[in-house]
Amino acid sequence: MNEEIEIYNSILLLAQSLIEGIEKISIGVEEFKKKKELFESLKQEQNKYEDEKKQIEIQITTYRTQSTNHGKNEIDKENIKKEKDVCFKKFGHEGFHTCDLPGHKCKDKCIKKNCYNTCHLLLEHDGEHTCESSHGCKNTCAACRNKYKYFLYDEHLELLCNEIKCKFKCELCASECSFEDHFHHLNTTYKNHICGKEHNCVKKCEKEGICQIMFTEISKTYNCLSGEIINYIYLRPDVSKEVCHKTIPSEKMTHDDEHICEKIHRCDNTCPDCKSFCSLIYNHTGLHEFTHRNKENCIFTNIEGNTIEINDETGIRKYQVKDEAVAKNCFNSCKRR
User: Fold this and answer.
1) pTM above 0.85, yes or no
2) Alpha-carbon span 316 to 336, nearest angstrom
3) Which one, 85, 133, 145, 251, has least CB within 10 Å?
4) CB contact at 8 A, 183 and 143
5) Which residues form a coiled coil (predicted)?
6) Is 42 among the domain residues?
7) Is residue 319 part of a domain?
8) 287: containing domain
9) Number of structural domains the chain divides into
């Protein structure tokens, strides 16, 4: 009986060992498959790298064959990969350390006066450092508001622009100045801008007397000292000077002699009571003649008492001493008491 048990246990141990062996074999097969896939992937990457390396070597060989000057026939830098850009010049060389790839730009500043841009030329170029700007002068012409035609770095003494003809407007009208010299108002004795045509004078008449007088009717009220309110018409005299009728010759800013209009001038003497102007011509002989208006230069007075009664077209008006007579007419107020 004991022998049978031992045989049975041995069989179990053997079976268990077989199972464990089979499991290890399965694991080994899976690991082998993974390693094989990894190896194939690495092999593909290596082949790809070798192909790219060959292409780069071909491009570099072609470039060196076609040109020996730095900066010509640029190669696409994105397709050229190096572990390190080592200076390709001989030991102890002068100047910058540079690789053999083209396209490196100069980093020095532009030499032009008041310019702060970087040089646009290639590294180690010949000649001066310059940028791509036109360096136009930013100041304005002394004769107009245009820009200078000179550059910032030029030592220009005259403040000139590209214009030849004067660009200003005539000072007497809206036409262009007729001078061909752009700087005539700076270089000649004639400083004005004129178009060369005749112009009507716009100055006021300087002749003595009154050119024109108009009367404007204005409705007003006057509050008497007695408390009465009087409505009246105020005649306001509007005196004006007419415009000169003479013509200004071409090439001139004004005409000769005084400014005069074409109107017959009236006498400028005024009535002492109503301040109306004389209706006769200037420098007339004899007495003055007036078309009287409101007595704005008078007040009421009385010998006896404080009340003055005046009978006009609206009835009896009562004034007191020191009342103004502006509501009454100079021509007839004294006849209505």
Assistant:
1) no
2) 10
3) 145
4) yes
5) 32-66
6) no
7) yes
8) 204-337
9) 1
Largest CA distance in the chain: 183
SS3 assignment, position 114: coil
What are the DSSP E strand ranges found in the chain?
199-200, 212-223, 229-240, 247-248, 307-312, 315-320
Q: What is the pLDDT of residues 89-142, one digit of tens each?
A: 666 666 666 666 666 778 888 887 777 788 888 777 888 888 877 676 666 676
Q: For residue 169, give both structure tokens.
A: 């407007």
Q: Taking the CB of residue 184, how many other CB atoms lie within 10 A of it?
A: 20
Give the C-alpha separation, 183 to 178, whole Å: 12
Helices (H), 102-154: none
SS3 of residue 290 by DSSP: strand
pLDDT at residue number 125:
80
Rg of the chain on CA atoms, in Å: 56
153, 145, 193: which is closest to 169 by C-alpha?
193
Instruction: Examine residue 13 and state whether it is found in any structural domain, yes or no.
Output: no
Phi, psi (5° rounding) for residue 236?
Answer: -95, 120
Which conformational region is residue 283 in: left (phi greater than 0), alpha (psi within -120 to 50 degrees), or beta? left
| Residue 330 burial by Cβ neighbours in a 10 Å radius (0-12, 13-18, 19+) | buried
Q: What angle do CA 231, 233, 238 make, to 5 degrees?
A: 150
Q: Which CA distances in Å does 25 have to 11, 12, 13, 21? A: 21, 20, 18, 6
- 192 found inside a domain: no
Contacts of 160 (CB under 8 A, 6+ apart): 141, 142, 143, 148, 149, 150, 183
Nearest to 63 by CA among 49, 77, 50, 74: 74
